[in-house]
Amino acid sequence: MAAGTILITGAGSGFGKEVALRLAADGHEVIAGVEIIAQVSSVRAEARERGVDLRVEKLDVTDPGDRERALDWDVEVLLNNAGVSEGGSTVDIPAERLRRQFEVNVIGPILLTQPLARRMARRGSGRIVFMSSVAGLTVDPFTGAYAASKHAVEAFADALDQELAEFGVTVATINPGPFLTGFNDTMFETWKEWRDDPAERLFDYSALAFPHEQYDPEPVYAATVRVLLGEDRRYRHLLPAEMEPQVREQVAAEWDRQLNDGRRPGLVQKAYDIAPATPVQAS
Fold first, then answer.
1. Is 146 known to be catalytic?
2. Is 194's pLDDT higher than 70?
3. 146, 205, 215, 221: the active-site residue
4. Edge-to-edge strands of the sheet including 30-34?
5. What local confidence, expressed as pLDDT, does residue 118 receive?
6. Which of 38, 164, 187, 223 could form a disulfide linkage to 85, CB 3.0–4.6 angstroms apart?
């Protein structure tokens, strides 16, 4: 079944690019929005190599001009996938990096969504999907800025789902856990770009890494395609599915959480002990 024009932001790499290519390969009309102009030619080249017809457009969600151009594309399905991840302790991340975390992950996507959602509502149909994260439901040490942005995405998505229901527009979230795409590991290297005094930092970030083993990303690609095509009617999609009981338990445990006991938590220690890009071992 044709889904209409599907717009995917952040399609220059990672989940967004692969999902765009797969949908285009199946004959769907897809617009791959990429952040910088250099990604336009590279994604077009990859599409040609795979023999698919994929429209690629520059779409930096933080750029008002780019967002305005997107209004001419008659979008019927929107995947808000564009995002960045700022690693580091909440006490150390510089102000400009905190602001960028929210501009890219929250403010830009919502400002893009607003006019597109109004058009969907007036048309009486449409689908909006947010690439959120398990970090929108839980928080790890050194990921507070990223998790906060995804918690904000969860709030906007939930509100939109309630507000747009009577207009025939559906909303859903994809909540990936730790997948091995490079995204999580580079989050723990953003400190290299900070313009601060390293002597003032509480932590030595050269000694830390993303504190989780990571999964093959295939389940995210497959699930996102199903959601965008309307084949999966659930609102939330936590991946990999085997993590769902653990995350439910972690969220519920917050109700009985006590003040910390002054000892280093296990995940903080794991950030010191684990090597970057450590895969989940097959059982």
1. yes
2. yes
3. 146
4. 55-58, 30-34, 6-8, 77-80, 126-131, 169-176, 236-239
5. 98
6. 187
